[in-house]
Amino acid sequence: MILSQRIQSLTASPIRKLSPYADAAKAAGKKVYHLNIGQPDIATPAQFMDSVREFQAPVIAYSNSKGEMFLLKAIQKYYAEKGMDYAIEDIFVTNGGSEALIFAVMALCDPGDEIMVFEPFYANYTTFCKEFGAKINAVPTSVENGYHLPSEEEIEKHITPKTKAILLTNPGNPTGVVYTEEEQDMISRIVRKHNLALIADEVYREFVYDGAYHSFGTMPELDDNLIIIDSVSKRYSACGARIGCIISKNKELSKQVIKCCQARLCSPILEQVGAAALYTTPASYLEEVNKEYKNRRDTIVAALKKLPGVKASDPKGAFYIMVNMPVDDAEKFAIWTLENFAIDGETVMFAPGNGFYNTPGSGVNEARLAYVLKSEDLERAIYILGEALKAYPGRVEK
Amino acid sequence: MILSQRIQSLTASPIRKLSPYADAAKAAGKKVYHLNIGQPDIATPAQFMDSVREFQAPVIAYSNSKGEMFLLKAIQKYYAEKGMDYAIEDIFVTNGGSEALIFAVMALCDPGDEIMVFEPFYANYTTFCKEFGAKINAVPTSVENGYHLPSEEEIEKHITPKTKAILLTNPGNPTGVVYTEEEQDMISRIVRKHNLALIADEVYREFVYDGAYHSFGTMPELDDNLIIIDSVSKRYSACGARIGCIISKNKELSKQVIKCCQARLCSPILEQVGAAALYTTPASYLEEVNKEYKNRRDTIVAALKKLPGVKASDPKGAFYIMVNMPVDDAEKFAIWTLENFAIDGETVMFAPGNGFYNTPGSGVNEARLAYVLKSEDLERAIYILGEALKAYPGRVEK
């Protein structure tokens, strides 16, 4: 058989590609602090398994292609409580936020079309685009201005006739940036002026630490342009459930997305049952979790400040921080740390930064750290990172 | 926003597109016998929910991108017992057979490339191809020769430089055909001669009624060409679990498919737990189910023989039968039956045949019937179908 150029052009996930090195380190008896992957350690609310255990059906049958009504209603209610009124017809349950993104790319892009992102950005956006022959149109942002957006003029300069959408993660992964209302207004003006879709990946919506959050879904002027990507994965620490959704008030879009849903038949039923129950979790759960992550954010920011030569962003949301390190190559450093470094048998793993950039050569000395560990473990992990930086033969003083 | 040509070119599922008419019939108080969808009524083995209920984990975390080891091993063991030895590295767990098909298309086709199928064929193959800009290259078969394959010469005539794979469903959906060993040898020669992939969709493998089944996986000469599509959906009456797999000994392919797996992160964990338990179901379960479907097959074939002007295939496997009916248009007839016909408040729904063909104008007076109901219900449903045929204003005598 002859394999497609398409699949050969895909790159391995920067978050997972060093896993074999971590496995080897563990096999050699090392403890590895995982800062590479956004897998929260917070317990999933008991409602999830409680409702699954109660599920009774003689036949595990196909469910509704766009999601079971009990889950659609749970999602609708969650949004209504945030002041966003969506009809059941506007909501489509997907296999995680991943499939919601896939449906958005499919709906908007023919081969050669472009989706604008602000780099650094979530690496799988590139994969989902490449799978469908679409291209990433990456507009740079930098640690110096906290990964906030460039000016309206600068963004418009990057728009081409092939640009079909702007895809934003807010709060940001990997940057932790939370856009200001002014930035959101600017994006709104741009997408409306150029008749673009705005794909708003808001899966980290509940993780905002320094002020209120303002969903793009609360901006009625965007109704025709907006596609919201959402998921229970991070919100309720249920990444393994793979339940997300795509939401839009654009009726033409909804008419098309249902065809994608029908082709893959349906989302898994048990996870839909569990996910619907998650939405009944009392608000206090999210408040507690938010407090815990804020604390972790403060811990990791303070710990990183102590490391000479390390420059970090000041994340306002999500649970990631991008760091610029005094190394020749963060990927080499990551492998070296797993293979050659330990303190009392413990080492650390992080995601090399280059995988979050589209522009060749960018992010080479950067890394994404996920602060998904308890504060004491985070302090220990950053201490180990600092000592590794001192010992690493490829250290570069700037 | 501007929608893609891609998504606008997708067609609604022939199996599901008439659902609004069925819903309306039910709302009006009619009972509808569903022969339109391959949703078995057989109880899912208790092992599924039993194992799910026992699942204990504080965090519903991401699982392995290519599937959890316990499920990979369960699949491996199932194949080994059938004389097919696959390494764990050869097996990738997917979100149903649907995602396995999607990965196969992605791995083999760039835009404009072709996948050869024998029509009539499972309608979503077209959707999965269109999603990736690939084309269906449909070779006709007919009810007259039981939907068996054309000659080697005839098949080779259809191969073009763009043909990357032959995709076969065996046993067939919607035809119920089971290919002979001679046909399988012929296909093997063709794919090896032309360096094509052979995508063998064998999800109905356990449903064969008149003799032994011979998987393409038992033909070692095909190791480099073969991609097996499999699923627990039909085998264990667990369609809603959405657990399938893609299997191949082609190492170049495996190296690529893992990237698709990683991009969408993982399959849902609870359903993997349940699916692994399904593979521990005693062989007697599948034997009983097989006996039940054989009985239903005999029932529906006998019942259809009584209907004047109806020509049906003689299905040897799966649980579908294609019928040629004396009507102007099977889709119009299907809608008319749901809207205007009932006997004692009961009516019947089936899938119009044109959706299973790629060639325009084909299958217009055909329908796919799924024999997934108890024999007495099947007899009743076919009786209603026969009476509807008598009363239908668009009846055409041939």
TrEMBL record, chains A, B:
<protein>
    <recommendedName>
        <fullName>Aminotransferase</fullName>
        <ecNumber>2.6.1.-</ecNumber>
    </recommendedName>
</protein>
<dbReference type="GO" id="GO:0008483">
    <property type="term" value="F:transaminase activity"/>
</dbReference>
<dbReference type="InterPro" id="IPR015422">
    <property type="entry name" value="PyrdxlP-dep_Trfase_small"/>
</dbReference>
<comment type="similarity">
    <text>Belongs to the class-I pyridoxal-phosphate-dependent aminotransferase family.</text>
</comment>
<dbReference type="InterPro" id="IPR004838">
    <property type="entry name" value="NHTrfase_class1_PyrdxlP-BS"/>
</dbReference>
<feature type="domain" description="Aminotransferase class I/classII large">
    <location>
        <begin position="31"/>
        <end position="382"/>
    </location>
</feature>
<keyword id="KW-0808">Transferase</keyword>
<dbReference type="InterPro" id="IPR004839">
    <property type="entry name" value="Aminotransferase_I/II_large"/>
</dbReference>
<keyword id="KW-0032">Aminotransferase</keyword>
<dbReference type="InterPro" id="IPR015421">
    <property type="entry name" value="PyrdxlP-dep_Trfase_major"/>
</dbReference>
<dbReference type="GO" id="GO:0006520">
    <property type="term" value="P:amino acid metabolic process"/>
</dbReference>
<dbReference type="InterPro" id="IPR015424">
    <property type="entry name" value="PyrdxlP-dep_Trfase"/>
</dbReference>
<dbReference type="InterPro" id="IPR050596">
    <property type="entry name" value="AspAT/PAT-like"/>
</dbReference>
<dbReference type="GO" id="GO:0030170">
    <property type="term" value="F:pyridoxal phosphate binding"/>
</dbReference>
<keyword id="KW-0663">Pyridoxal phosphate</keyword>
<dbReference type="Pfam" id="PF00155">
    <property type="entry name" value="Aminotran_1_2"/>
</dbReference>
